[in-house]
Amino acid sequence: MRHAHVNAVFGTSYGRLTLLCRGPGVISGMTIHAPLEKTVAPPDERATAPFEAAAPDAIRDSFPLLDHRTRSQAIPRRLAPFGHYLAFSDDGAEWLVPIEPRVTHIGRGLTADVRIEEQRVSRTHAILVRHGHRTRLLDNRSANGTFVNGRPIFATNITDGDVIRIGPVVARYLQVA
Q1: In this structure, what are the phi and psi dihedrals at residue 126, rounded to the nearest 5 degrees?
Q2: Residue 174 CB-density burial (10 A; 0-12 exposed, 13-18 middle, 19+ buried)
Q3: Pick from 167, 163, 86: which is nearest to 119 by CA?
Q4: In whole angstroms, what is the distance from residue 6 CA to residue 22 CA?
Q5: What is the Cα–Cα distance from 84 to 90, expressed in whole angstroms?
Q6: Measured between alpha carbons, how far is residue 128 from residues 72, 73, 74 in Å?
Q7: What is the percent of the chain where pLDDT is above 70?
Q8: E strand or H helix at 68, and its extent?
Q9: Could you read off the pLDDT of 99-154 as tens digits, one per residue?
Q10: Other Cβ atoms within 10 Å of 64 Cβ, number
Q11: Spatial contact of 80 and 97, defined as CB atoms under 8 Å apart
Q12: How far apart (Å, rounded) are the C-alpha atoms in residues 72 and 87?
């Protein structure tokens, strides 16, 4: 096939790019493996919205909204050993909830690893995935969205100090080293 018309482009978070091509009498798919950092953005892609300090309904003192089991795992920041944490505020104090070594489910449901008792948080709101030295936050089709540093996300890598908003509940991702 000498000339092909690209009908659709499908990208994934795993560094694959799938093209659906139509040639003379043939429709074929082509998958290209490429690192995400070098993936070229489409020409019609717009810049990300400017940083928003906080949503008007954001709950900053969110530690009291954690269920009893999650609160019992929390430790004060000054006592935290090396590791990865979600930091929740409570009247000026910061409490760190350790995240699981591989996958941490965040939500209102009983099976969530970090359970938040707030009506606007979905039962399976978001998922934190740790892989190597990276941590990825995925919105799990929640009703009220997941935000990182004020921007809505579907899936993104997060780094130390990023502010995460699960529905209206605000937390911070921390790596204690």
Answers
A1: -150, 165
A2: buried
A3: 167
A4: 6
A5: 19
A6: 20, 17, 17
A7: 68
A8: helix 68-73
A9: 999 999 999 999 999 999 999 999 999 999 999 889 999 999 999 999 999 999 99
A10: 12
A11: no
A12: 14
**Helix, strand or coil, per DSSP, at residue 69:** helix
- For tokens 């990182």, name the residue: 148
Residues in the chain, total: 177
Tell me the residue type at 35. P
Q: Quote the CA–CA distance of 106 and 114 in Å, as a whole number.
A: 5
Q: Tokens 């978070």 sit at which residue?
A: 13
Per-residue tokens: 59: 């709950």
User: How far lies 39's CA from each of 8, 35, 68, 92, in Å?
Assistant: 16, 7, 43, 42
Q: Which residue has the tokens 């690192």?
A: 35
Q: How far is CA 138 from CA 1, 6, 104, 145, 174, in A?
A: 39, 29, 10, 10, 17
